[in-house]
Structure prediction request, 547 residues.
Amino acid sequence: MKTLIAKTPSAYDYPLLIKNLLFCPHAYNPDQEIVYRDTVRITYRDMRERIARLAAALIKLGIKPGDTVAVLDWDSHRYLECYFAIPMIGAVLHMVNIRLSPEQMIYTITQAEDKVILVNPDFLPILEQIKGRIDTVEHFVLLDNAGEKPQTSLAISGTYEGLLSGSQPLEEFPDFDENTRATTFFTTGTTGLPKGVYFSHRQIVLHTLTMMSSLAIPAQKSRLHMEDVYMPITPMYHVHAWGIPFIATMLGIKQVYPGKYLPEMLLKLIVTEKVSYSHCVPTIVNMLLSDPTSKNYDLSSWKVIIGGAALPRAIAIEAMKRGIDIYCGYGMSETCPVLSVQHLSEEEHALPPETQAGILVRTGRPIGLVDLKIVGPNGKEIPNDDKSTGEILVRGPWLTQGYLKDDLNSEKLWEGGWLHTQDVACRDATGSFRITDRTKDVIKVGGEWISSLEIEDALCLHPNVAEAAIIGYPHSNWGEVPFALVVIKAGEKLKAKALMDHIKKYRDMGLLPREVILMKIKFVETIDKTSVGKINKVELRKKHLSG
Ligand code: AMP
Prediction:
């Protein structure tokens, strides 16, 4: 027989709501700073009041529980306020991907049924292009910059700062069911239309708590702790900036929001604001390290967790040379996002940098509460031999329960009660796993799967290679062979034969499959990226395989 806990009638049944993440910093660290570029400084006390004013202003504009409010902004203190104020009144925050095409933007705004859009003046042109085709929207609010009043044909209902100063702070934020939807956003949609995912208060709170504890477990390096200064470099419109703004706020640490990502501004803020903790995709850290001004900045107090794509060892080694504490995590839009983090043990930290890099670029071990298995083509879990591969399937408290208004794809995502990530991985005896491909990107040579990520990693280890991507090239005998698109470092030279000789070394050591010898190589100027800076293989196939 089940025994439920006894409830005293007057006991408070505490719901896991986003508002509850704010108690600690406001009680214990009200004077801590939140900084926007080199222009704005507010305290947590100010932020608390601004959140209450924004909430009141949105209610005045007619926002009711269940309505959706969209934000189009670069990373800012205002975005952080929206992360809290909008869900805290029971509304849904739609983080609009500012890099979507106009058609995709119409689709996402309409699907999400946005009622109010808060827009940075930089994105007015795109809204002007689509106005008249986003019928659900009743108000546009301008995220105004210091008194600027841009010319626009949109009917603006007010400016953000104007609405805040014209509203009395909301006195109390209501309690409601923790399963209420808090946020929504759309996958980056490299194929077809973007798909909407959504997360509840309970999911975000549980993600915050678990991720926070997971980031705190290493004995010394790579920890996010109370003395850190946080700056995101994964956009706030993408998967809650990995949920770390919620963690940083709950910890009450100093936060720095960099606006649009400009290498020099990011590097400057890291040094002047003493930023010690960030997260980004590999291409961004590569961009920062190869920026001509980068050498002028001391980055040796900076920790950075990399995710969103596999981190090539060459970038990890380069970052380590600069004294950066770099490590990896894994997740996806559908999973809030974090599923795993790769922490090194004390012993592993003592290994030579090249060996360490090989370990830290792995995808990691699942964080608490995440139930993750890797299932091979035979439907069984793969052995932990670091070679056999299969698809990663997950369960966890913070996974989207489906795609917005898309039953067919929702069922596919959750087939058999497990969320299908479409990521292919292997796992070693310590339980640390390593993504070798996306199911869509897997290359099958003579019936054998070979990992495009492993070849990319080895290509990038050539000193003259800046970037590399592997796609499958149709072949009459083999079905497919690997096709390497390679960007040479500025000022360097490289011939295909020399690069092939480099690759053969890895094959001879047994680190790459025999079939790698069939690889074709093409030197290119650039490699296409998605809206969040990842290698865009769909575009690469279109561009380099057509005809
Ligand atoms: P998105 O939904 O746009 O955030 O993309 C999620 C996808 O990025 C995952 O399904 C993986 O394919 C990829 N990804 C994320 N983190 C990693 C990682 N650490 N290593 C390799 N691929 C990753």
Remarks:
- Residues 226 and 253 are 6 Å apart (CA to CA).
